[in-house]
Amino acid sequence: MEAGLHEGSAADADRPLRIALLTYKGNPFCGGQGVYVRHLSRELARLGHHVEVIGSQPYPVLDEGEGLDGLSLTELPSLDLYRSPDPFRTPKRDEFRDWIDAVEVGTMWTGGFPEPLTFSLRARRHLRARRGDFDVVHDNQTLGYGLLGDVGAPLVTTIHHPITVDRQLELDAAGSRRKRASVRRWYAFTRMQKRVARRLRSVLTVSGTSRQEIVDHLGVRDERIHVVHIGADTDLFSPDPSVPKVPGRIVTTSSADVPLKGLVFLVEALAKVRTEHPAAHLVVVGRRAEDGPVAQLIERYGLEDAVQFVKGISDAELVDLVRSAEVACVPSLYEGFSLPAAEAMATGTPLVATTGGAIPEVAGPDGETCLAVPPGDAGALAAGLSRMLGDPGLRERLGAAGRARVLEKFTWARAAEGTVARYREAIATTHRSAPGTHSRSATGTDSRSAAGPDRSAVQTPGRSAARPAAEQAPAAGPSAATEGSRSAAQQEGEQALAVTPVDTPHRESRTTC
């Protein structure tokens, strides 16, 4: 029988589950994956399940309060190579713990992004050392080779959208052969993610558009993919008439200055809008890249006083900022869902959004719940913003209709219920297919090897956890980040996972949130 399962669990629809929720990046203030983990874990705990979030830096921020006693965080630290204020740092010798750390540094040195691979290897080691503690393991888009091995419980994986989409958009925007080579090196991990995705038995995604992209880009079989819409925290993101509207204010969220987010088109549109509405100004929730294309456009159009970037704000400050805007805007070229759209609509702030990716699934029909424009069209975006700013009646009507749509379709409580249904299905399927006493991985491969020691898990102070951290491994030292270290990763992957060897890492100069 699968480790972590109990006899009759497939038929026991009410039994609380023990869930390991994995996320290699969990900061909810700078990316959608962290928002997903924070809100989904809270709602799963409110349903009575025991949820242990296992994450790496930047660590997830979890909610606390009544009904959340079953929610805890276990820190699985990386070397945190991209942290501020010293991204792309070389760790000191005594920071190295094992060969996985060496692989992490070696991959960064040669231009690649190591975290999906190295987190998956650490997570596998941790989970195998805790065999029997969980009924299901839920991976939040790590898609690393380590999770194809025996992790002690059925595996369910969320793919928000294929990162190959981001890769292609950045390649299209690259202005030189050197830049394109740099993009390819950074995104080398997507080859691993494609190989892993094709072997998964249960995949969740957040929209019908993402489902089709996963089939087309990653080659996952359609019947293995299930759409579970995510949503907004409608208690937090709600209307508040006491918050005054700021005339001309447009608000948008952009976690990074990358082509995918379409911020360059919004800045160009703002320059056009201000010829008709001089009070129009833009507040961007996100970090400003001083030498990026957005900063260059702001300077070109003389918009230094009309564009403001804010970061590090609290939830309450974010909500009040959105409430204060006359218009919210999602200018993205592509989104797998668009949490910023759902959250803005939940506050009753009217939305102008592109039709990129799954945004129409969230924002709804043009003229009924939002104003919709083609992606990558600054002129159309300017026209939509000007129309919204100039028509108070339209803003009121679309704002009310937008909130009603979110309340009906996109809440985290509904997302948690749909996710639990897929957990139970995965548990039942694994239970039926593995009647023997040995464990069987979620990918359908036999794995009888003994679990090794977990050398990296750290429990977050002030939170309960299943078991304490194990003793640290001896330091490997910087010299270990060599081809020999990558060979160790390759050999471990081949022996334990029986999959294609790890791709050769590359180098790129960028930071990640």
UniProtKB/TrEMBL annotation:
Residues 249-404 form the Glycosyl transferase family domain. The keyword Transferase applies. Residues 429-513 are annotated as: Disordered. GO terms for biological process: lipopolysaccharide biosynthetic process. Residues 462-485 have a biased composition (Low complexity). GO terms for molecular function: glycosyltransferase activity. The keyword Glycosyltransferase applies. Keywords: Glycosyltransferase, Transferase. Residues 504-513 have a biased composition (Basic and acidic residues). It comes from the Bacteria. Residues 31-235 form the Glycosyltransferase subfamily 4-like N-terminal domain. InterPro entries: Glyco_trans_1, Glyco_trans_4-like_N. SUPFAM superfamilies: UDP-Glycosyltransferase/glycogen phosphorylase. Residues 430-448 have a biased composition (Polar residues). PANTHER family: GLYCOSYLTRANSFERASE WBBK-RELATED. This is Glycosyl transferase family 1. It comes from Streptomyces dioscori.
